[in-house]
Hints:
The chain is mostly helical. The protein is 90% helix and 0% strand.
Amino acid sequence: xxxxxxxxxxxxxxxxxxxxxxxxxxxxxxxxxxxxxxxxxxxxxxxxxxxxxxxxxxxxxxxxxxxxxxxxxxxxxxxxx
Length: 81
């Protein structure tokens, strides 16, 4: 036969086990959410850097075109004496 102390002990241990189980599930959920956020941030950073590199390439192309036009202008217009 169970006495009061045994029942209290069983309920106490059960409460601790349930609390740890719920806490573990909650922690795992938070960890998964953090991983999703990190992945999203990483993806957005990759897209941002790709845009920056694309813009730099466009700027370099523009600079080359301007330089070519400048050289052609200098070559076609000799200095006046």
